[in-house]
Amino acid sequence: MKKILLSTALLSCFVFAKDVKVGVVLPLTGPVAAYGQDVLAGVELANKIMPKAKNGDTINLVVLDSKGDKVETSTAALRLVSKDKVVAIIGEATTPNTMQVISVAEDKKVPMIAPVASGDKLLDNKKYSSRVCFMDSFQGQKFADYAIDTLKYKTVAMVVDQANVYSLGLAKVFETQFKKRGGKVLKKLMISSNDKDFKAIISQLQSVKSDFVYMPIYHPEAALITKQARALGFNTPFSAGDGVNNKTFIELGGEAVNDFIFTDSFDYNNPSTALGKSFVDRYEKEKKTREVPAFAAMGADAYFVTVNAINNCAASLTSECINNEIHKTTKLEVVGGVISIDKSGNAKRPVIIKEIKNGKQSYKATVNP
């Protein structure tokens, strides 16, 4: 009798199992494609590791390319909800474009979860939006403390992208904390995204003689500035936020970016959870390298948080339920560590300090919340 009941239960599960669509919108082409490609690699690998919900439902990814454009991002998010009928959205990669996904999510009442968009005010007064990364206030403050306490720096020159909300927000937080701790900002220079010639900027950096330079900007400009600076004999240490945490930055900068220090959200040499270790092993098997990009880990975390919410909504799988469960995430072990998400959608997780040595990312420290 027990065998018959068990078989009936399994048959019932098989018959009623269904496909569940999760949308993914990322910049897979365009100037910041490296971010989107890293995130997608993590999402797709996480889907291979956990392709089904606990009740047997298959999790299908619907992936769209935003091309790094705000209008394309908004259009893609609308299509995912209206045409593809996804129950949740993962994306985008940059803060400005994530704002477009949030607008659609809030209007259509479909949960979205941002893997790496760290702008402080991104989730203010939002109900259907969340993220798995830390906020800029956390990485900015902690790096300012690290510069003062560990690196013993007293003066800084800053390079800020005046057209980028990520850069402006992170710069403001860092500057406030650095000054609060007794440091001095000797110069703050403004650039614009897609600038190519930074000789004038470098000349001004040379004139102030600061202990280090802090550039909370994206990797294309950061690599060019560093490369051009070193070619002109400027040897002051450079540093940045998580906008430079990919292989493309190292490839673009070459030897010039050695000794570059930055904040990050994951270190493949020091995974702190069983899932993190198995993810790195699986990544190595598929990609032939253990160098898991931090944004890939964050993409995976966004996926695992979403699936955890789907599992908790098995009895009533609606976007409303999934959204509520995402915001109830408590001490969930994911790839990047143990994560909790509060009612506002913000995540609590450590920040990692790294340095580029011999063309590779090298772990320096972990700073916990």
UniProtKB/TrEMBL annotation:
Protein family membership: Belongs to the leucine-binding protein family.
Cleaved signal peptide residues: 1-17
Residue intervals of the Leucine-binding protein domain: 20-359
The protein's name: High-affinity branched-chain amino acid transporter, periplasmic Leu/Ile/Val-binding protein
Keyword match 4Fe-4S: no
Gene expressing this chain: livJ
Superkingdom assignment: Bacteria
UniProt keyword list: Signal
Gene3D superfamilies for this protein: 3.40.50.2300
